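FW: tagging you since you asked about this chain on Friday. Here's the raw sequence from the shared folder, copied in full. Didn't touch anything.
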Amino acid sequence: MTLKQLKKVWGIGYLLNIDANPKTVKGQKLGFMTAVLYLAPYSLSGYNVCPMAVLAGCWKACLNVQGRGGMKVGGKTMKTPVGRVPSNDIQRARIQRTKFWAEDRKEFLIQLVKEIRAFLKRAERKGLTPVIRLNGMSDIQWERLDVGYWLGTGESYTIFEMFPDVQFYDYTKITKRFDRELPSNYDLALSFSNADQKYADRCWEAHLKGASLVIVYRTKEDIANAATWFDECRVNFVNGDAHDLRFIDPPKSIVALLAKGTAKHDTSGFVQDFR
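HL: got it, structure written out here
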């Protein structure tokens, strides 16, 4: 599919966002270039790509509506299956990418592979190490997706096996992903929520077994208090806002993020207070 066809059929010009995010671009100072696939989270597109969004209580405080994604053009919003989101090009593109993923999986993957290959060449020209996040706003279990089947190659392989020398990483709220062996070039960090006690318990169980746990705190004071407490417990405590490269964090870390935008007022249990 050409870029012209992408724009005509799906209203988008590309799938991957390359260091256009103020957080991921910080990785360039550490020698990395990051490509991120941003879909529309939860079921904003009509297709649910975040199966734990309700249980974890994160869908209302999602970063999808922060930054440029939260800007309204002319004060307008778009009606979606779960309410309304700001009317802007970013939201429309995320929704259309998700529909493309759900409705034409083969062409989507062909385009994704094409863009990954172009991205690898771009990073090489810049002298940077390429890294990829396929779940910028979604929570798709890519390690279970048979890309070879969808591409019609007659062979079975994942996207990670297709690009074995590339580091992939993501955040997830699906705790069962840590019950199976993940690809060696795929790093996952588990996003914590206290919205449901059983979910919170599963998060801590996964952490005790080795998973890094990402926790969103309401204020800088909450982060400072948490840092003191975890330091006393001799647990690696990481400032997750310093960069997005979770795969370079010490194993079994607690990664602290500061709540942004509307998330500061979240009461679901997703955003934490540490007094």
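FW: Helices lie at 3-10, 53-56, 89-103, 105-126, 147-151, 159-162, 197-208, 220-232.
HL: agreed, and The chain has one domain: 3-272.
FW: great, closing this out.
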